[in-house]
Design a protein that fits this description.
Elements lengths: L2 E6 L7 H15 L4 E6 L5 H13 L5 H20 L6 H25 L4 H25 L4 E4 L18 H11 L1 H5 L3 E5 L2 E3 L5 E3 L5 H11 L4 E6 L20 E3 H9 L7 H10 L3 E5 L8 E4 L11 E14 L9 H11 L6 E4 L5 E7 L3 H11 L1 H6 L4 E14 L9 H11 L6 E4 L5 E7 H17 L2
Parallel strand pairs: 1-2, 1-7, 2-4, 3-4, 7-9, 8-10
Antiparallel strand pairs: 5-6, 9-10, 11-13, 11-14, 12-13, 14-16, 15-16
The structure holds aspartic acid and magnesium ion (MG).
The site of magnesium ion has 4 residues, from loops.
C-alpha cells in the first residue's frame, strides 16, 4: 500500500482559513495515494497558553487560567461557527470543545488548590490543544465528503514515562499502528491523529517534547512504512536565512540530515533532528512544504549530503548571548582548568554554544545565553577561588550583546576557500569577528559578532557566500 503521512503545524491549523486550506490539501492529496494519515498539532500559541494557565494556577493566580479558557473557547468555537453550518455536526463539535476546555479548567482549579503542577499533569493538560484540533480537522474532512476519523495518539504511540519529553518505544508502537491505523487505511478512511502526544504502557498521557508533532509524524511514517512524510508549515521550506532578517531569503531545495541538525542547533527554527531521525534513517523521503503555497515543491531532506546547491546552504543567528572569558597567565599547562570551568557552568544549567581556547592557553572563552551569566561567573569564581587568590587566574569576565552567526553546509568540508570567503564578506562590511569556531563535522563555521553587527553579518554572508557563492 502506498501510504503518505503528513503533518500540519500550528499555523497551518491555527485559523478557520488555515484549517480549510489544510482540509483542501488533504483531500486533493488523498486522491493520489492509497492511504493518507494526517497528524495535527495544536493551533499556534495554544500549547503555550495551556501551559501558562497551568503554571499561573500553580503560582497562586486563580484568574489567568479562566481568561485563557475563555480565549481558547472563542477561538475554537469560532472555527466551528465559521466552517461548519449549524446543524449537522456543529453542535457535537461545540460540545467537544467545551468538554476539553472544561477538563483544562478542572485541572487548573486543582492545581491552584495544590499550588503545584507535576510534569505528568502538564502533559495531560497540554494534550487538550491537539485533541481539539484533530476533532475539528476530521469534521471538516467529513463535511467535504471524505470519511475521516480522529485517532488519539495515546492509542498509538507508546512511550517511556519521561513526562514532557517522552521517548517512543518503537516495538509496541509498531504493533498498535498495525492494529489500529492500517485497517482504517484499508477501509479508505483518513485518520486524523493528534501530534505531540503519546501514552505510557499503562495508558498515562505523555508528550514528546515541544514541537513534538514532527516527531509524531516521523514515528508514524516509520511504523506505517510510509512512502513519504510531508511536514506542512507556513514557509516555502527550509530557507537560506530567516526571511524576516533578510528578505532575499530563498528556499533550499535539498538538505541533508546533518545539515538540518546543524541548522537547528544553531538557532534556525527548522525540524528538530531527533524528530526526523526515524524517517531519515529508514531513507523515507521527508518534505517540508508550505500550506499557504502548496504548489511550491518545498525542501527535501535526505540522508546523505548533496552538494548540488553550493558549499554553504544557509546562515543563521542565535541572539542574546554573552561571551565569558577566563584568563590568567598562570593557567598555561595546568591540567583541569577547562574541566573545572565547564563543570561549574554545567552546575548552573547553562548550555554552552561555542568554546574556544587559544593555544597559548592563557584564556578560555565560551558563549552562553546572557541570562545565565551572573550565576555562571559567580560559580566559576567560586571554583577558582584559590587560583584567583594566587593570580594564576586573573579574571573571569563577560561580554554581553553577542550573537553567533553560523554558516551551514556539508560542502564546507573539502571546499577550500569557503571560510576565507566568509571572512572576506565580513571584512568588506567592516564587521569585527570576536571569535570563531568550526565544528569538526566541518558542516558549519560559527562566528561571534556583536549584536549591532549581526543583521549586517547575516546579509553579507547570505549575499556573498550563499547567493553568489
Ligand atoms: N503543540 C505542540 C507545541 O507547541 C507540538 C507541536 O506544535 O509540534 O509544542
Ligand atoms: Mg508547533
Amino acid at each position: 500500500m502506498r501510504i503518505l503521512t503528513m503533518k500540519f503545524g500550528g499555523t497551518s491549523v491555527g485559523s478557520p482559513e488555515a484549517l480549510s486550506q489544510a482540509a483542501e490539501i488533504v483531500l486533493t492529496t488523498a486522491q493520489e495515494w492509497e492511504g493518507v494519515v494526517v497528524v495535527v498539532s495544536a493551533a499556534n500559541g495554544v500549547t503555550d497558553a495551556l501551559m501558562k494557565g497551568a503554571l499561573s494556577a500553580a503560582g497562586g493566580d486563580g484568574q489567568t487560567y479562566m481568561e485563557i479558557e475563555g480565549d481558547l473557547r472563542s477561538r475554537h468555537r469560532g472555527v466551528v461557527q465559521e466552517l461548519l453550518s449549524p446543524g449537522g455536526e456543529s453542535s457535537s463539535l461545540l460540545a467537544m470543545v467545551d468538554e476539553h476546555l472544561a477538563e483544562f479548567t478542572a485541572f487548573c482549579r486543582s492545581i491552584h488548590v495544590l499550588g503545584e503542577v507535576t510534569p505528568r499533569a502538564m502533559d495531560t493538560i497540554v494534550s487538550v490543544g491537539e485533541r481539539m484540533n484533530a476533532g475539528l480537522l476530521a469534521a471538516l474532512l467529513r463535511r467535504r465528503g471524505a470519511t475521516s476519523e480522529v485517532v488519539l495518539s495515546t492509542e498509538l504511540i507508546v512511550t517511556d514515562a519521561t513526562f514532557q519529553k517522552a521517548a517512543p518505544l518503537m516495538e509496541p508502537t509498531r504493533a498498535h499502528v498495525a492494529r489500529r491505523l492500517v485497517p482504517l487505511l484499508a477501509d479508505g478512511i483518513i485518520p486524523v491523529v493528534t501530534g505531540f502526544i503519546g501514552a505510557t504502557e499503562e495508558g498515562v498521557t505523555t508528550t514528546l517534547g515541544r514541537g513534538g508533532s514532527d516527531f509524531s509524524a516521523a514515528i508514524l511514517g516509520d511504523c506505517l512504512d510510509s512512502e513519504e512524510v510531508w511536514i506542512w508549515t507556513d514557509v516555502d521550506g527550509v530557507m537560506t536565512v530567516d526571511p524576516r532578517a533578510v528578505p532575499e531569503a530563498q528556499r533550499i531545495p535539498i538538505l541533508s540530515y546533518a545539515e538540518v541538525a546543524e541548522l537547528s542547533y544553531f538557532g534556525a527554527k527548522v525540524l528538530h533532528p531527533r524528530a526526523i531521525r526515524p524517517v531519515v534513517e529508514r531513507g523515507i523521503p521527508l518534505w517540508v512544504k508550505n500550506t499557504f503555497n502548496p504548489s511550491c515543491p518545498g525542501t527535501r531532506i535526505v540522508k546523505e549530503p548533496d552538494n548540488a546547491c553550493g558549499a554553504v546552504k544557509a546562515v543563521t543567528a542565535i541572539r542574546d548571548l554573552s561571551m565569558v572569558t577566563v584568563e590568567g597567565r598562570g593557567m598555561m599547562g595546568v591540567p583541569g582548568i577547562a574541566a573545572r570551568t565547564f563543570a561549574a557552568v554545567a552546575g548552573q544549567g547553562a548550555s554552552v554554544l561555542m568554546i574556544s581556547q587559544a593555544s597559548s592557553e592563557q584564556s578560555i572563552c565560551f558563549v552562553i545565553p546572557t541570562d545565565h551569566v551572573p550565576a555562571v561567573v559567580k560559580a566559576i569564581e567560586g571554583e577558582m577561588a584559590a587560583e584567583l587568590r594566587r593570580r594564576d587566574v586573573d579574571r573571569v569576565s563577560s561580554l554581553d550583546e553577542m550573537v553567533i552567526v553560523t554558516a551551514v553546509g556539508a560542502g564546507l568540508r573539502g571546499t577550500p576557500g569557503v571560510a576565507a570567503r566568509t571572512f572576506g564578506a565580513l571584512a568588506q562590511a567592516n564587521i569585527n569577528v570576536v571569535a570563531v569556531a568550526q565544528g569538526s563535522s566541518e558542516c558549519s563555521i560559527s562566528l561571534v559578532v556583536s549584536a549591532n553587527d549581526a543583521a549586517r553579518a547575516l546579509r553579507q554572508i547570505h549575499s556573498e557566500v550563499i547567493l553568489h557563492g
